[in-house]
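Lecture 7 notes: from sequence to structure.

We start with a single chain of 150 residues. Read the sequence below before looking at the structure.
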Amino acid sequence: MDLNQDLEHVLSDMMNGSTKTTTEYAFHAQGGDPVSSEPDNERYEYRVKILDDAKHAITKDRNHTYGSPSSDFLRASKIASVATGKEITAADIALIQIAVKLSRLNHSPGHLDSCIDIAGYIACYYEVIRLHDDRLEEKYTQQTFTFDEA
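Now the structure, written as tokens:
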């Protein structure tokens, strides 16, 4: 199984409510061959943890606290537009949030919370752009997620 198939398998399981732990997907992070398909209990552990934590943040924690990302970013874009006197879109807000996290990573490389937040913000960006941005080409608004079984 190649890396893309591995990732599709993990994401498919996540979308279907899998109870597998990250270590069940994990491959060895240090000393292992980065392109090897041999199971190696830690290689993917950090990537899967970041995606798991981001998924939890954008579908549970923050979603319950602030409402849906599209509603939250739309509200923020209206406030930012008034504050700056320039049109700021909901998608711009998502990209600004990502920029803030990238700036923080530049100052503190490897800070896990910023990595998790970036993963969450990019998923929220995609949601917002599909719902609120008329610049998006129609072919992208018709995309659905499908995963082949390995």
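Confidence is low (pLDDT under 50) at residues 22-35. Keep this in mind for problem set 3.
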